[in-house]
Design brief:
Layout (H helix, E strand, L loop, with lengths): L8 E4 L2 E4 L1 E4 L6 H30 L7 H16 L4 H7 L6 E3 H34 L4 H4 L2 H27 L8 E2 L6 H4 L8 H36 L3 H29 L8 H22 L2 H13 L6
Parallel strand pairs: 3-5
Antiparallel strand pairs: 1-2, 3-4
Helix pairs in contact: 1-2, 1-10, 1-11, 2-4, 2-10, 4-6, 4-8, 4-9, 6-8, 8-9, 9-10
């Protein structure tokens, strides 16, 4: 089926210009679409309340006033933001025969996906800095990682994410799209969109590879090395209660880093061509990962679980 049959194009100066893109989705089978709709809906029914509960528990509990929990609350906020970028369109398309997204809507998805992804990477770097100071400079921790420094790190994370996303989207704005307009995906991403441009995009693909793929790999390696060094230092100290708690926190961060960076590295570090695992990794990156953040942190952190119970008990939703 050719996307031209949907007439998503207009003539301008004797050149056809694409005004919307056709999303082929995850499956064309009705039963599979219904199953995926229920599955995705359950994911987001869990993600939103879980992350909201994490934020309310952290901000409303004096026991969770350390910078680590401040960063965790910001991480939960990012996962909430993810829920408003692609899910509305994904869920609506399961019941639509005309799975399209406007040119402007596609660029908006690109911008906010890479904005949030960039912010999350920068935030994880800030959390690694926080753990370094807490473990290696414990006597200076409260002065080095003050509340002002925490806000500055979060502000820098958003600024860095904005710059990264801006650099990603601006070159695409200048690309000519004259057909075809089919995206073999369920949302807009750079790896799919630039292949539809009516011009040679080899140089742009290299630029995107360095800006997204190579930077992601470098951050991933740097984070693994830093947490690996911290874990070695903690294990050298012995097995005291404080050391075990700090090591458990570092392991939790490593799990989140591997889960987040793995699909991202796969998506942005191979040539911009379709591969069998592309959609699986995309689902994991955009749907599953935001759900795993709150689950991993809450299951591995007794303080957060206790704070949630206290919050719910105050509102008569749980036993004390």
């Amino acid at each position: 089926m050719l996307s031209l049959s949907f007439s998503p194009q207009k003539k301008m100066s004797n050149q056809t210009i694409v005004t919307e893109f056709l999303l082929l989705g995850l499956s064309q089978t009705r039963e599979v679409q219904l199953f995926l709709f229920v599955l995705f809906l359950l994911f987001y029914i869990v993600i939103l309340p879980a992350n909201i509960l994490i934020i309310l528990s952290i901000w409303g509990d004096s026991h969770l006033g350390s910078p680590m929990y401040f960063f965790l609350a910001n991480l939960a906020f990012l996962d909430i933001c993810y829920c408003f970028v692609t899910p509305p369109k994904i869920l609506s398309h399961f019941f639509s025969h005309h799975k399209t997204i406007s040119y402007g809507g596609c660029l908006a998805q690109l911008f906010f996906l890479h904005l949030l992804g960039g912010v999350e990477i920068n935030l994880l770097m800030g959390m690694a800095f926080d753990r370094y100071v807490a473990i290696c400079q414990p006597l200076r921790y409260t002065t080095v990682v003050s509340r002002g420094v925490c806000w500055a790190l979060v502000g820098a994370a958003w600024a860095g994410g904005f710059i990264h996303s801006f650099i990603q989207v601006i070159p695409i704005v200048w690309l000519p799209f004259c057909g075809p307009n089919e995206l073999d995906s369920f949302f807009c991403d750079i790896t799919q969109v630039i292949k539809l441009a009516c011009t040679d995009v080899y140089v742009l693909e290299l630029f995107m590879f360095f800006n997204s793929g190579l930077v992601t790999v470098m951050c991933f390696i740097l984070l693994l090395i830093s947490y690996g060094a911290l874990l070695v230092r903690l294990w050298a100290r012995g097995t005291s209660k404080g050391t075990s708690k700090a090591a458990s926190t570092c392991v939790t961060h490593v799990i989140i880093i591997v889960i987040m960076f793995g699909p991202a590295i796969y998506i942005y570090c191979h040539p911009f061509h379709s591969f069998p695992l592309d959609k699986v990794m995309a689902v994991f990156h955009t749907v599953v990962f935001p759900l795993l953040n709150p689950i991993i942190y809450t299951l591995r952190n007794k303080e957060i679980i206790s704070a949630m119970k206290r919050l719910l008990s105050r509102h008569g939703l749980a036993e004390t």
